[in-house]
Amino acid sequence: MKSCLCALIMTFLSLAAMPGHAQIMMSHSDPSTKHPVTDADKLVDALRAGPKFVTADATILDWPSSPGGEYRVLRKGTSQWTCLPGVPGYSHDEPGCFDPAFMTWIKESLAGKEPEIHTIGIAYMYVGAWVANKSDPASKEEEFHVGPHVMIVSPHESQKELESFSHDGSNGQPYVAHLPKGHDLYLVMPYREWPQQ
Questions:
Q1: Out of 17-21, 26-30, 52-56, which region has the weakest mean confidence (pLDDT)?
Q2: Counting beta carbons within 10 angstroms of the beta carbon of residue 65, is it exposed (0 to 12), middle (13 to 18) or buried (19 or more)?
Q3: Is residue 196 part of a domain?
Q4: Which of 106-120 are b and which e, b meaning 16 or more Cβ less than 10 Å from the residue's Cβ?
Q5: In DSSP terms, which residues pair with 122 in a beta bridge?
Q6: For the chain, what is the total number of helices (H) and then of strands (E)?
């Protein structure tokens, strides 16, 4: 599993170095604290989360109204990918696109279960995410906007591989985190800093 995770990380880093890729990613990104309300807006929001080769045929879901509830289909897709608008109740709009393993991991974690996946999962968040600002105590900003990134989750038995990564996402480097109700870590690999205003 470790060699597989290392190979995946190296592949991502080589793709990230491709010229022009950053401009494509940033054109999909628009930071916002406003969450979409209508189904049409939720669909548009979810489509901002990943590259076109993922979003074009992805199934678009809406979040369940309660933990462990049903995810509502906004658009049926033909690929293995699933994209969702930002999570309701979060302070910022953070849409994401997830492969089957990562989607299973999210569903089980948010339902309060220990996630049971047997392979590495991958997700895209082109709009980025906001984390607590731990790296710059002199800053007046309480949050740091992590730029566009790819996330990787591994099976529970492989969690030790992720523990050595930084747990601070506010310095722009790769880091690990866990969902609010979860304990298993996922690796976040920012591709580019968010443009400073």
A1: 17-21
A2: exposed
A3: no
A4: bbbbbeeeebebeeb
A5: 152
A6: 6, 10
pLDDT in tens, 156-173: 888 888 999 999 988 889
Phi, psi dihedrals of residue 126, rounded to the nearest 5°? -70, -20
The sign of the dihedral angle between the CA atoms of 137, 152, 74, 48 is positive
Task: Check if the beta carbon of residue 40 is closer than 8 Å to that of residue 64.
Answer: no
Angle at 13 between CA 45 and CA 96, to 5 degrees: 15
∠ at Cα 197 (191, 35), nearest 5°? 75
CB atoms within 10 A of CB 45: 23
Domain span at 93:
2-190
> In the chain, how many domains are there?
1
User: 197 in a domain, yes or no?
Assistant: no
In a domain, 147, yes or no: yes
Inside any domain, residue 23: yes
